[in-house]
Fold these 2 entries.
Entry 1:
Amino acid sequence: MIEFQNVSIAFNNNHAVLHDLSFKAHFYEKIAILGISGGGKTTLLRLMLGLVQPDSGRIFIDGQDITELSESELRESRMKFSIVFQEGALFDSLNVRENVVFCFREYSNLSQEEIEKKARELLHKLGIEEAIDLMPEELSGGMQRRVAIARALAGCNPKMVLYDEATSGLDPLTADNICSLITDLAKGEPPERTGFIIVTHKVTDAVKVAERFIYLRNGEIAFDGDIGALRNTEDPELRAFTGELHLSEKHL
Ligand SMILES: Nc1ncnc2c1ncn2[C@@H]1O[C@H](COP(=O)(O)OP(=O)(O)OP(=O)(O)O)[C@@H](O)[C@H]1O
Ligand SMILES: [Mg+2]
C-alpha cells in the first residue's frame, strides 16, 4: 500500500508543485497519473521513492513512513518498485546487454549463463533482441525506451512498476506496443498482481492500460476515478484534457 497524507512540496521558494495531496493506492492497482506538463507528476514518483522529501506531510510505503528513513532504509523501500525513468534511462557507456543485466548482477545470485538467458528472453519479449550488442547511442528513441523497460523489469522482483512517460515521443505503433507490454507485465489477479503507475499526458495511452485515473491540477488531485467516471466528467478542463476520448466515442 502507498499512502500520501497531506503532502506538500515546493522548489526554490516557488509556489507549491504539490499541495496538501492525499491518496492511497495498492501495489496491485493499474493507475494512470495525468496532468499538464510541469504539473508535478514526476515529482510525485520521486517522492514515492524518497528521492525528494516533502516540505510537509507523510508518505507511507507498506506501512513504513519513508519521510523518516535513513538512506540505507530508503534503498530497501525503493526495491519494492521498478522504475522506467522519463529521461536518461540508460547507462551510456554500457551496451544493451550490460544495461539490462545490471539489476540481475547487483541483486540476484543467478549464474552468468542464466543472466544471459534472462536478458535475451526479456529483449526478445520487447522485440529488440537483435540490439543486444549495440550501444545506447546507436538505438532509436523507441528502442532505448524498450531497453529501459527491460532493465527496469530485470532481476528485481518489484511489487509495482513505475513508468514515467513510457510512451511519450514514440510513434503510435511503438507506443501501442509498449502499452501491450505494460498490460502483459501486469497480468494476474489482485492482490498478487504486480501493478503499475504510469505517468503520462497521453490520455489515449492511459486508457489502454489503466483502471484508475488520477488527474493533477494546481498541485492537487482534481479527479480520481475509473474510466466511466473519466468519460462522464463534467469538469471543463478535464474534458478538454481528455478531448481525444470524447472524440473517439463520437466516431464509434
Ligand atoms: N529538483 C527540482 N528543482 C527545482 N524545480 C523542480 C525540481 N523538480 C521539479 N521541479 C519543478 O517542479 C515542477 C513540476 O515538475 P515535474 O517534473 O514533477 O512535472 P511533470 O508533471 O512531470 O512534467 P512533464 O509532463 O513535463 O514531465 C516544474 O515546475 C519543475 O520545474
Ligand atoms: Mg515528468
Entry 2:
Amino acid sequence: MIFTCPVCGGKLNIDESRAAKCDNRHSFDSAKQGYYNLLLSGGDHGDNKEMVLARRSFLGGGFYEPLAKRIAELCRDSIGNEAVILDAGCGEGYYTEHLSKEVKPKNAYILAFDISRDAVREAAKKRCADEYAVASSYHIPLPDFSVDMVLNTFSPQAPAETLRVLRRGGFFVMAIPGEEHLFGLKSKIYDTPYKNEVKDTYIEGFELILREELRYPLALRSASEVRDLFMMTPYAYRTSKEGRERVLSLDSLECEAHFIILIYKKV
Ligand SMILES: [Zn+2]
C-alpha cells in the first residue's frame, strides 16, 4: 500500500482482516467498498450525499465527458510506464474512471482520495483506482517524492502539499472553470451575473507547460438535469431563496461548459 499512516507517516501494511496497520500500531479498517478512512478529524467533511448523488447523475449524462476524455489523454501522454498517479479530490470517481481506461496499458498505479466519505464510497465502488482513501489535500497521507503525477479537477488544493508528494520532474494536472463556465446558469440565479474570475496561473515550485481551453454548449433538457447541475455547484449553498426557486422551476437550460486545463512540471 502506498498511502501512509496519517498519524506517524509510517508505511501501512494490510493484515488478514484487511485492516491497514503501521509499525506504531495505528490501525485503519477497510470499509466494505474497499477504501480506508485516513482522515484524522472525525465527522463529515466536503460534499454531502445529496451533492455526490446529483453530481453522479449529472456526470452520468455525459455532459463533462469531453473534459474527462481530454484530461485522461493528456495524462496518458505525459507519463512513462509504471507511473504512480494521484487523483487528489477524486469526488465520486468520474475522472479517475476515465483516467484509468487511458493509463492502464501503461501499467500505471492509481491512488485516489477525497475529503468526503460519501464521495469516496461511490468512487471505490467503481474499482478504477488501486487504492482509495478519505483524506485531505492539506495533509496528504503519502511520503515525500512518491508520485509521478497529481490530478486535481475543481477541487481545493494546497500547492505546497502537492509539491511535497511529487517526484522531481513530476506533473501536476489541474482543471479549473473558465470565465464563461455555466454563465447561463448564473444568469438564472443572479440579476447581474459576473463572469468567473480566473486567477493567475503561477504556482511556486512549478513551471506551467500547457494551458488548454475547452468550451462547448451544454443543453439541459429536463428539470432533473437542471437540478442536478445546480446541486453539484457551489451555487446550491450560496443562492437566495428566489434564485433557487427560479432555477428549480426550469425544465430546460441553455448553458455552456468552459474549462481550462493546466499542466505544470515540478522544477
Ligand atoms: Zn502510524
